[in-house]
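Input (Tick transposon):
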Amino acid sequence: MHCRGTQQYFGPRFRSEAWRQVRFYSDCLYAASMGNASQNSALRAYRRDLGIASRTADFLWKMIFASLPRRKKQTCQSGQEVVTLGNASIPPGVKSALEKGPKFCEPPKLDQVELLSLVRSTAARASVDNRDRCIQEGVDCLLPTKQTGASRQPSVIKSLRAADLKLLQADKEGGFVLAPTTVYKEKADAAVTENFQVANVKPSKVKATASKLCEEAGLQKLASSVRAARGVNLSVFFSAKTHKPEVPFRVIVSEQGTWQRLVGRYLQRSLSVLPVEDPCLIRKPQIVSEFLQQECPSEVSFFSVDVKDLYYSLPMDQVCAEETVLCTIGSAETICDGPNGA
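Output:
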């Protein structure tokens, strides 16, 4: 038996099984050839029979392959179109670079300390015997190497700054969107006004209150982490909805580097031990399918739920507790509604 072409046309699982069968039948052929003959003649017979089996399998494979349906040749796309808003214009070299899409963006440059930390965290996943070798080889890769020369590609960042343009990512299509600063501010203000309400609070004061509340609850480690956090409020960034008219902006909230992330992760970890029966919780998609099969009208074939219906439209006054404190019951910290709640 011969499996020429198997590696090219099938997946790794099929190739592994196919080569296992090749080794098995080769061993069977070798055992049959060594039965009733001298060693030299048996080896000649084995090589002869193995060659016949190889040529036969090659012939049969070509016959089968010729009868298989041909896959249509796929044309390689040159890139994603860069959407421009307003009177934005960029040089051809910058446009060709942006057409490659976010997938081909250069990763941010890490300093030596961060790279060394990545080496050690990667080596920690190796076996104990190979851990030192992984660290040594990883450190060798971090040694300064000779530069191959500066790229002649014009700097995209310098060109965008010179033209006073803002760069965004398309919400659905994944390409890039360019907008003048004035257009960017107008659409960003409209998106923020639509989704958020103005709150007359001082972020630094809220952070100090949260730290004090953690200290009163005996959570000294969490209080120290809250004070050490640099971010005092959540940040937002935008993506462009190129699939909609006038290309509105989508607001994306980020809690990276903020004290809210630290407190939120602690609360999630603590509240996960409580048995909560949430009537609105959907644990698996089959529940939605069963509901649609039983309750959905026959003339409805599909539906779509927007994120505003899932979160932004919730009545915050009813969802959020008016008075929330941290209290300790035994050894488990939980959230209580009021100082005497449970």
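Residues 108-142 form one domain.
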